[in-house]
Design brief:
By secondary structure, the chain is α+β, with helices and mostly antiparallel strands. The chain contains 3 helices and 2 strands.
Length: 83
């Protein structure tokens, strides 16, 4: 499964370059300047944007969905309120 999704990213990056579109230099998630990954929705395969490897992995590890991010946010808010 990972290799399938990786090939979508590789194909997407190649197509982007072929169409002479400019790849941003800053992550569209955190703003850090880095080499960026072609991010895509794993269900629809639609391009979402360009993000750094850390953001790409973080989003993936949280389930690649909004609920996973909200769960992490809730956890951090709860932890902050108890300190």
């Amino acid at each position: 499964m990972f290799l399938y999704h990786q090939s979508i990213a590789v194909r997407g990056r190649k197509q982007w370059i072929k169409e002479q579109k400019q790849i941003p230099i800053h992550c569209q998630s955190c703003g850090k300047q880095a080499k960026l990954c072609y991010d895509h929705d794993h269900t629809t395969e639609q391009h979402r944007g360009w993000i750094c490897q850390q953001c790409n992995q973080g989003i993936s590890l949280l389930g690649d969905n909004i609920q996973g991010l909200l769960n992490a946010l809730h956890y951090l808010q709860h932890d902050t309120n108890n300190n």
